[in-house]
Amino acid sequence: MDKKLKKKQDVLRQRLQRLQQQLSGARKQMDDRDEVQRLEKEIASAETELGKLK
Questions:
Q1: Which of 5, 6, 21, 38 gets the highest tally of CB atoms within 10 A of its CB?
Q2: How many CA atoms are closer than 13 Å to the CA of 38, on its beta-carbon side?
């Protein structure tokens, strides 16, 4: 695995972790239901991209 690929995977993992924390907070407050759906879509997208890299 080259350095660029490894770095991209690390960045995606960090992004996933941040998005999951945001989703958890958004679910607790439920001020904006659209935000929860948006975060879920972003998480799915990031997981798909990470899966392609592996």
A1: 38
A2: 7
Q: What is the DSSP string of the chain?
A: --HHHHHHHHHHHHHHHHHHHHHHHHHHH-S-HHHHHHHHHHHHHHHHHHHHH-
Mean pLDDT by 10 residues, the chain (54 residues): 90 97 92 91 96 88
Buried b or exposed e, range 9-26, using 16+ CB within 10 angstroms = eeebeebbeebeebbeeb
Is the CA virtual torsion 10, 11, 12, 16 positive or negative? positive
- Measured distance CA(36)–CA(9) in Å, rounded: 24
